[in-house]
Write a structure and sequence with these properties.
- This protein is elongated.
- Helix 1 packs antiparallel against helix 2.
- Helix content is 80%, strand content 0%.
- By secondary structure, the protein is mainly α.
- It has a domain of 88 residues.
- The chain is built from three helices and no strands.
Length: 126
């Protein structure tokens, strides 16, 4: 039975072009978009974890030196893991707009980290 349609069937070159485009889009999603989303999710999780640790630090009894040390060690490791994730993210950036956003994040991260260290040292949160 013949296909009833008002348009003719696609030519071979048109079909090939569409398949090539779909492959390109699929590769972009699987090689760039999904890994970027995954890394951003990891970064977000790590940042939240360190924020929670900062609050735990602030609420810890001054006499509990070991707990302070444990929290600070965890925060240091999480910060290192976050830095590693940012490096991975940097390799996934695809255009100047992405790179500009990454530069703003990097510029904001250093003062934030410095302030967090000072707050923890001085016990301002307590």
């Amino acid at each position: 039975m013949r296909h009833c349609s008002s348009s003719p069937p696609p030519s071979g070159s048109f079909a090939y072009a569409r398949i090539a485009h779909l492959q390109e889009v699929s590769a972009s999603v699987t090689q760039r978009s999904l890994p970027t989303i995954t890394v951003l999710g990891q970064i977000r999780s790590l940042v939240k974890e360190n924020f929670i640790n900062a609050l735990r630090h602030a609420l810890t009894d001054d006499k509990n030196v070991r707990q302070f040390s444990d929290i600070e060690a965890a925060m240091k490791q999480i910060s290192e893991d976050t830095t590693a994730q940012y490096k991975q993210l940097d390799g996934l950036l695809s255009d100047d707009q992405d790179r500009a956003a990454m530069e703003r994040i990097t510029a904001a991260r250093a003062p934030y980290t410095k302030l967090r260290v000072e707050v923890l040292k001085q016990g301002i949160l307590r």
